[in-house]
Amino acid sequence: MAYPEAMYQQLALDAVCSVCAQYGYDLIVWTMLVQSCHYFKDYLEGELNIYELINFDKVDAVLVNAISLTAEEDSFLNDRILDKLKRECDKPVAVLDIPLGDYPVFAPDETSAFERITAHVLDMHRPQRLLFLGGPKGNTVSERRLRGVRNEYALRGMRFDDSNVINGDFWYTSGMALAEKIMSGEIERPDAVICASDHMAIGLTATLGKRGYAPGDICVTGFDGAVETVMAKPTVTSYIPDLTVSVHRAINSLRERMDPDLPVIPPRQSKENGLRIGASCGCPEDTGYIKERLMGSLWNSTHNYVIEGHLDEVDLCKLLDSYTFESFTAAADVETGLKMICAADWLLRPYENFWLCLDPNWLDTESGRIKGYPDRMDNVMHTIPTEEFILDDKQHCSVKGDHMFDTKELIPALSESHEPSVFYFVPIHFSRVTLGYAVLQNPISQKKKIGYVFHNWIRNVDNALEMIRSKERLAQLARHDGMTGLLDRRGMEKGIEDLRSRAAEGDEWIALVIDMDGLKYINDNYGHTEGDRAIMTAADAVRSIAGENDIAIRAGGDEFYIQGVGTFDEDRERQRMERLRSMLSDMSAAAGREYTISVSIGCAHAPVTADPDTVISEADKRMYADKMTKKHR
After folding, report:
1. Are residues 455 and 584 in the same domain?
2. Mean pLDDT, the chain, integer
3. Which domain holds residue 451?
4. Which residue, among 265, 225, 269, has the nearest Cα to 112 in the 3D structure?
5. What's the sign of the alpha-carbon dihedral 158, 162, 166, 171?
6. Contact in structure between 230 and 278 (CB atoms under 8 Å)
7. What is the pLDDT of residue 495?
8. 355 pairs with which residues across the strands?
9. pTM for the full model?
């Protein structure tokens, strides 16, 4: 599916989770958090990548919420999903709402819903002229809804004229365009307009209102029960559709193909659907319903953070008041940034588990993955909720840097025993660059679904990770020599801290000081550009002899250090120094240079408890002695 915070998708999720709970099924939801017509195309590309993660080997059947994948009649995403199903899926497939290939389609009874809408308009408002504002001509969904209008007219011995059907695109713009045509006289003013979607109804009523029309001057109704209807001015009369029966039939069809010997539960209609009255049709608006939607879907301006249960009632205002983005972006380094994200998990509540899975190379700003995911992912974070809110208590959160797993497994714990759950898989990215994905696990019976808060929390995480990447890149630049890429003296300090942290008992500091011979001669006779090439050649050779527990540093113009921890072996270090000299001689010959790059080297060691500067100082003395010996020769 896509764009799960929309009302229609929320109803579908409610229905799917309800049926899965009855059967004890797990539900995996792969979803992007925006519509497929999202205007920011690079951002949309980053969102779309989540569908590349789908692994049909991990599921027993597939349900496609096709209407959520379509926007403004653009079916490119449905086409992409259909192609993936044909290439990779050998499991039973069912589709909701609109056709997708030749898979079986299960649509809600929208015809009956529009019969009831039409009956309300005819009985309560008695229009002489009624228009139907639908979708594009021939659109399956629009035709189902128009059929309900025709049926109600026929039941009353009347005929609904085709000339009263106006084609639109289900979006605000169609309602606005119709209003302009009515006001200009291009279309004769109607007494009522039944719209096939809430957004068209809002566009129509808002435009009429700006031109002086009062609510009810033209009776207007919508469909979907979108939250925008209670925020619109005027509020819009809408109809909350019942998706329960069609979803149940779809899942039953999958169950019959998965487990033909198991019984199926007959579907039952929901009691939470039906007509909801706003001011747009001219009736007194249902203030109780409007208040409930506003308070339940959006925010309260001030919260009591002390009352019991406040952590399970997170809304947009709590998200904004949490200053999450500021705390995320204030983090100075990777570990702190991940811990700040971890500490903000209370905004996801109630939930069971949360995983943040990133590309192992996500910190590399030079190479950005656009499509697909690597073969292995890094589970950098796994959080579980605590019973109480204590910001400094990190016991509920583990930030990991070494938990690698095969991407085809989706998450490390998917195969572990658990109560029936819903797993939401959503993309983690910055613009079109994929960083990884996040997974939220809830009990399948939990009423609350992902929505506005989750969407915007994830956006904050996306931006925070990009900020961490940028800071890490700047830190890397600040710690590395620009010419050779080796650590500079500032980077050496951080490197020594890292070496000290992983030193074992009995280890020693081992230091090599390496100084180029005759760099001034090269600069004077062949130019500074050639001198720079010689420095970079020497740096490459120094880098190549540095071991796993070593750091390589450019300490100055033509001076290099290697520092490491481990067990000192005099023969091994002598061989390493000779290997460096031989390598430089071979590299000079291979480059066809008229001179040979050579170096003087000194080596020293001391207990790991010693000051590293003392070891470097001793190695420097021995390097200088080596250089003097060469000069005497």
Report:
1. no
2. 88
3. 7-106+311-474
4. 269
5. positive
6. yes
7. 85
8. 382, 439
9. 0.77
